[in-house]
């Protein structure tokens, strides 16, 4: 009986562990989603980007973009700068089209939880930017 329980627990752990081959999109793209989302309020009010919480969010976004670049290299993109530049433009359009109230949505909260967990998995601790 205990072996069955351990086996089921093992299978569940595999189900919830991200794998590159099984991901819905490349890690580089997910990281860029997170970077763009972190910088949403700064795009809406650029004066905030230079101080306080806006500066912290800018720093986190920059760290996520650096991680996206590193992932893009690992994924085999011949020109990661061009790839991420195109992708950044698409992501900004996608997320900004949802409007300012999007930041109060469950979808936004889910993305932020995902971004925190994924970033922590990569060794990026948001607390380090405060």
Write up this protein.
The protein is globular. It has helices at residues 2-16, 27-38, 40-44, 52-74, 80-96, 106-121. The protein is mostly helical. α2 (27-38) packs antiparallel against α4 (52-74) and α4 (52-74) crosses α5. It contains six helices and no strands.
The DSSP helix count reads 6
The largest pleated sheet is described as: none
How many β-strand runs? Answer: 0
N-to-C terminal Cα separation, in Å?
48 Å
Helix content: 55-70%
Q: Structural class of the helices, strands and pairings? A: mainly alpha
What is the radius of gyration?
A: 17 Å
The ordered string of helix (H) and strand (E) elements is HHHHHH
**Gross geometry:** globular
Average per-residue pLDDT, rounded, comes to 83
Residue ranges: pLDDT <50 for 5 or more in a row? Answer: 2-22
Per DSSP, what share of the residues sits in E-state strands of 2 or more residues? Answer: under 5%
Annotate the secondary structure layout.
Layout lengths: L1 H15 L10 H12 L1 H5 L7 H23 L5 H17 L9 H16 L9
Helix pairs in contact: 2-4, 2-5, 2-6, 4-5
Describe the structure using short key phrases:
single chain, 130 residues, mainly alpha
What is this entry, summarized?
This protein is mainly α.
